[in-house]
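seq:
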Amino acid sequence: MSYPGYPPASPYGQPPPQGGGYYQQPPPQQHHQQPPYGGPPPHAHYNTYQQPQQGYGQPPPGPPPGQYGAPPPQPYGAPAHSPPPGTYGAAPPPSPSYYPLGPPPAGYGAPPPHGYGQPPGPPPQQSYGAVPPTPTAYTPQPYAVQYPPTPPSPGYGPAMNIPWNPDPDADRLRKAMKGWGTDEKELIRVLADKDPFQINMLRDAFQRRHRRDLIADIKSETSSWFEEGLVMLARGPLLNDVHMLFNAMDGAGTNEDILNDILLRRSNADLKAIKAEFSRVCHRPLEEMVRGELSMKTERHFMIVLGATRAEDSAPVVKADIDRDVDDLYNATEGKIGTDEMRVCSILSLRNDNQIRAISYEYRQKYARDLDTVIQKEFSGHMKDALLIQLRHGTDKYMLQARLLEDAMAGMGTKDRLLTSRLVRAHWDRNNMRNVRNAYEQRYKKKVAKRVQGETSGDYQRLLMAICGEPI
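struct:
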C-alpha cells in the first residue's frame, strides 16, 4: 500500500541524471522542479530542506526552490514573522511539580536574555564538521561559513503571544477535577489537542484563575500511565524533556532510550534551550549529569551532540565535503580492521539532515552497501542505537518516528513510558503527526491508532487515541 508523495522504494533515492552528477558549482539563479522527498535531487539540490505540508513526503505548496544553496523554508510550527514580545511561554511560578529537586536559589540558571535557544548578537560562525574541543574527538577538515540558524521548535523558543483565550479551558479543567470524582474524558478533551503555545498559556491561566498548580492537581486526581500521559501534555515539550531527562538518569541505572529520544537529531537552538532549562530546573548542568551516566566513547559521542554545533539546516550540501565524509566513513568501518568509532560519531552528529541524506546515498553508490547495514555490523549496544537514529532521521525522519513507535509496542509487553512520550512528542506538531501516521500505515499496513488501541485500555487508551487524532 502506498500514498501520494511517499519516497521511492530505494532508500537512496532516484538514480543520477544522465550526463552529470548531483553536485555542480552554483549555477545562475533559476528555478528547478522540486524533487520528491527522500531522493537526492537533480543539480545539487540536496541542500533544499523539505518540510511536507500536504501530507507525508509531499513538498510544500508555492513556487519551486531558488538557486543552489538557498536557505530552507521555516520548519513546522515556526511563525511567519517575529512575534511581538510578550509574556506567553514564560516559566511558571515555582511549584513542587516543576522543580524535581526543589526551588533553585535566587538567580540560579537564569535563561539567556534573548530567550531559549537564541544566542545574543549575530549568529555564531558555523563550521562544517567543526567538533567541540574534545581532545580525542575526530576533527574533519572544516571550512568556516556563516549560515542562518535553524529556528527553535514550537515551545523551545522565546515567549510568544497568540490570539487565544485560555481561561475557559482552565475553568473546564478545574471543574473536571473539583469535588468528588474526576471527569477523565473532559481532561482528555481539553489537553490532548493543544499546541505548545496553548498548553503553556493554559497552565499559567490555571494558576492565575484558581491559585492552583495544574500538574499537581492532575497527579492528585489520576494515576498510572493515564496520569503520566496527562502530565507530559500539561508540562509542554521543553519542560517535559527536562523532567524526562532527569528521571532517566536519576537513581540506579540509565534509561538510554530516553536520552536518545530527547537529545539526538535536535537542532542547535533546541539543545541550547534544553540545556538552559535543565540547569534552571535541576540545579546542575546537563552535560555533567550525562557524563556521570555514560562512559568511554558513548560519553564522548553525547558530548559532541550536547556541544550543539551541528550544521544548521540552511548549510548547503557540497560535493567535495560529502565525498570526504563518505571515504572517512568507509575508512573508519569497512576499510580497516577494527572500527574508528569517534570518526563515525563525529560525522553523523555534526551534519544536517540534507547532508546525511546525501552521504547515505553516495555511500551506497560508491561502495554498493547500505550505510545502515554497515553501522549495524560494526557497532553494538547504545552507540549502535544512537548512530542508527541519527542516520535514519536524516534519510526519513517520519519513518524513523513510525519505527520507534512500533518498537515501543512490539514483543512481549508494551514499553508504556516510551510509547506515551513518543506519541506526545510527535503530536506537538500536527503536520508531523499526520506524516508519522501515514508513514506507519505505509510500513506496517495498519493505522497507528488501531495498533495503540490493541496495546492499551481504559482512560489511558482513550488518551493515546486522542493524541493520535481520534475523536473522544
